[in-house]
Amino acid sequence: MGIEIKDLHVDVAEKEIIKGLNLKIKDGEFHVVMGPNGSGKTTLAKVIMGYPKYKVTMGDILIDGKSILTMSTDKRAKLGIFMLFQNPIEIDGVNFINFMRNARAALADERTNVKQLMDDIKGNIKHLKMSDEIINRSLNQGFSGGEKKKSEVLQLSVLKDVVKLAVLDEPDSGLDVDALRIVAENINNVAGQNKMSILLITHYKRILDTMKPQFVHVMMEGRLVGEGGSEIIDRVEKGGYESFSAK
Fold it and tell me: Is the overall model pTM greater than 0.90, yes or no?
């Protein structure tokens, strides 16, 4: 699934946050957007997913050449767009297994093989070094910050064959060193599978130490102000975001 963002302008509570952003991600590509707090990174993620409080005032978001701006969030999800939340919410009463079964059925548009699903979940739980107790718990209920992030990556790993574009909003926030390594390794494992495209959003270089994104962008004041390969990460590390200037 290719996504193209063209001259995007976005208002939040009548304040312009994104100010003319252009970005194109082809099938199977791994892109990273870095930037300081308040630069508009999370706004970009939520706009792609169709968050209703964010108003697109100009520009377009195209999936395979077709605009998705009028599509509801659930319809975008059915296209294969997945979002890992910066702050995953707890949903009491929604069992994790039932959530995954329904999600897979909706995205794959076919009856779910429950045994195969369970085997896949258990296998990925081991990779993420999580407790099997997650299977019988409500979604994110009582989870630590690290467990919530691992739960989101678990969902992505299980749905990897039906997800076409994964938007990962700060998967590194709130993680200790060990959890960060595990999360990064599992994201690496799904990157590029079935031509899945990834847009990873982060403040820091540390999660990228074990990753090899093909494209790195720097976002400041609602615009992309730098782009390239891994050399962009090194530039941020050495000179900070101050080495880039908003246009």
Answer: yes
